[in-house]
Amino acid sequence: SSLGFPAKLHSNLAEQIKNMYQLFISTDATQVEINPLVETSNGEVMCVDAKINFDDNAAYRQKEIFELRDFSQEDQREVSASKFDLNFIGLDGSIGCLVNGAGLAMATMDIIQLEGGSPANFLDVGGGATDKQVTEALKIIAGDPKVKAILINIFGGIMRCDVIATGILNAVKTLDLKIPLVVRLSGTNVEQAYQMIRDSKIQVITARDLGEAARKAVEVTHIIDNARKANLKVTFEMQ
Asked: Would you call the peptide bond into 6 cis, given omega within 30 degrees of 0 as the criterion?
């Protein structure tokens, strides 16, 4: 009754809800959103429209469903990211983000906005990323023409900081990356990772905490914005 359906339709409604639950379970769905669920003029309960998401990990047993996927309707960056087990969502800002862990990624984007910047993406490399995944992640981020700086924020718990450092250095060389990188690392083998970056002589801006990293990333984008307004080209050189 709280859904607004008359008592005579409750059994029909209950059957629809049971069917929705069965659909959710049998298809390995992660979301079944029905909107609207209506009463028709002839007294039937009907799902008029729906949004359904499926667990990518179940693709092997839901082949018929996943064969219907139309990649042309998706953000190609997200498609590319999924091939390397990266979680990517494109946004409208100018600071690319590469982070391990969804919670840390959300916090990173919040701090960027607090410092006056805007994130260009959500990208979570997960807890066991390889240097190949880091390279592909940076390739995807650098492919966005709106990105003026990239902030890498890694907590080395499961993920070792030296592995991330190796990935960063390889990516910069492989991609001939010209976009300024701000790197903040914390956790396992962090000092070893920072030493690797220093020894490489590659132009990377380092930071010891997230606040400092976000401020530096925002400052870099402001420098680039001001230079472009004056029709100037900016190159960065570490002191």
From this structure: no
